[in-house]
Specification:
Layout lengths: L15 E3 L6 E5 L8 H14 L3 E4 L8 E9 L7 E2 L5 E7 L2 E6 L5 E7 L6 E4 L4 E6 L3 E9 L5 H4 L1 E2 L9 H14 L3
Length: 186
């Protein structure tokens, strides 16, 4: 039996490539078949903790793929401005840590929350054209995210919620985040 060629590593340029133009630290798998080990999850987590930035490993080979599957390490305190995708749904499956998903109506009222803890609650799916955000509740949350591709660029695919602070205003974001977390008793 031959050895498997499906395992990937962020540190192996034969199996992954780093996207220099991505907003966060982003890698793409180079192979059509991808198997993840605990080691690559630790690589993602370690890189996020070392850099202080969110890190993602896309299991698809490029932004042009029809199906986007990503392993993301989101750090507590990182701002993911509420947004909506007009034409596609998205799902989150928690792997480590805890996160909360907030869903909003068009005026900014919270219409649903989902704490993903990896025990009693594992997955949250958001339909298309719905405002949402996710916040790590533990020092980091590692989750598997799935959505349709291709990635056409931020302006073509997402609309930021006008009721939320701009991502450049850190103090406004912290106040906004704290108000959201109060809704779930955190």
């Amino acid at each position: 039996m031959s050895r498997s060629t499906s395992f990937v590593s962020l540190h192996d340029p034969e199996t992954c490539w780093k996207d220099p133009d991505a907003k966060s630290i982003a890698y793409f798998a180079k192979r059509p078949n991808v198997r993840l080990s605990r080691t690559v999850i630790e690589e993602i987590k370690e890189m996020a903790q070392r850099t202080g930035k969110n890190v993602r490993l896309s299991l698809h080979r490029s932004p042009n793929a029809d199906l986007h599957e990503m392993i993301i390490c989101q750090l507590a305190g990182q701002y993911n401005r509420p947004k909506r995708h007009l034409t596609k749904a998205q799902s989150f499956h928690i792997m480590e840590g805890e996160m909360v998903v907030f869903v909003f109506d068009n005026d900014g009222a919270v219409i649903d929350t989902g704490v993903l803890d990896g025990k009693s609650s594992l997955i949250y799916r958001i339909g298309r054209d719905i405002y949402y955000t996710g916040i790590a509740l533990t020092p980091y949350a590692i989750y598997y995210e799935t959505t349709l591709g291709p990635f056409l660029g931020p302006a073509e695919q997402r609309i930021f919620a006008p009721f939320s602070p701009d991502e450049t205003d850190h103090s406004a974001y912290l106040a906004y985040r704290d108000r959201l977390l109060e809704l779930i008793g955190r």
